[in-house]
Amino acid sequence: MRTNSLMAKAEFGEDEFAKVDGYRLHYVEAGKGPPVILISGSFSTYRAWNPILPILAKESRVLALDYLGAGDSDKPRSGFRYSIGEQADVIAKLIRTLRLGRTHLVGASYGGAIVFNLAARHPDVCGKIVSIEGGIIRPKALPGSPMEKWLGYPILGDLVIGLIRAGLVNRLALQVIAGDWLPQMTGAERRRALDEISFNARSATRHAWYWIGKSPQTLVPFEEEAKRITAPILYLAGKKSDFREMTAETIRFLDTHLPHAKILNYTDGIHDLQSQKPYEVAKAIREFLASESGPA
User: Fold this and answer.
1) Cα–Cα distance, 294 to 225 (Å, whole number)
2) 247 to each of 41, 58, 117, 135, 136, how far by Cα in Å?
3) Phi-psi sector, 82: left (phi>0), alpha (psi -120 to 50), beta
4) pTM attached to this predicted model
5) Structural domains of the chain sorted by starting position, each given as residue range(s) with its CATH number in brackets
């Protein structure tokens, strides 16, 4: 179902909407070929994939998704807690609604956990999966941030969201996201990152961001189902990431239970590898999707 985007017209591809379980989901579609859904990280929109989308669209039908709570997709205030399992269920229903058949899934961080969950619990809709710094096991420790705690209080949380939506913390957010990459960023890369952060911030809502921030705690364990994933897996991680402990735990899980997974570890990589290394990441994804391996 096509209509105009509420936030801004897509830079590449066409804005589309679909209804799933009564919710409106926004995605940007481009290209032809085997279907690929891109799922971004916490607090971000489909625009996280803008540098990669045109490259993947050369060989695939790419749907860059605003999951529920992000961008132009609905942001329900009740009945939905933005957990990884809930998001996976909605995306599986989206695949069935659009009659995509087996669909390749690419996710980063929060989105990377969603693709693991989806492959474990909805194997019938999954082709190959690519997880960029996503997790399988509920993490023991993550980089600390007071934002999720503040968002839990209506008055304080609304003030915080107001500051975020006004763009007053965009540069601070860039420092946190870029980390060790910040000194090496070119002017163009900084402008692109700030534009993306600004777009994400304008779509922020307190309820959605609070529960997305709590998704590691609301994760319903799915390790046993994950051990039975037969879909081909590509896992990308960065050794300069602030989430190194979590990614190391995920890699141990893959080595132990899913040895068919291919793992790429970037020595200078940060958590947002798709932003830091779009061409390298796009090349790795294209080669993986083009390889002969397929779901068992």
Assistant:
1) 19
2) 15, 30, 16, 7, 9
3) left
4) 0.94
5) 14-143+218-290 (3.40.50.1820)
Residues 74 and 93: their CA atoms lie apart, in Å, by 15
CA separation, residue 113 to residues 59, 81, 209, 269 (Å)? 25, 16, 17, 19
Q: How far is 222 from 231, CA to CA, in rounded Å?
A: 16
Nearest-angstrom CA–CA distance, 53 and 63: 9
What would the two tokens of residue 77 be? 């205030």
Two structure tokens written together for 125: 């809709």
Q: Read off the pLDDT of residues 61-107 as tens digits, 9 standing for 90 and up.
A: 999 999 999 999 999 999 999 999 999 999 999 999 999 999 999 99
User: 3-state class of 17 per DSSP?
Assistant: strand
- Residue-wise pLDDT for 133-172, tens only, equals 999 998 776 666 667 778 888 888 889 889 999 999 999 9
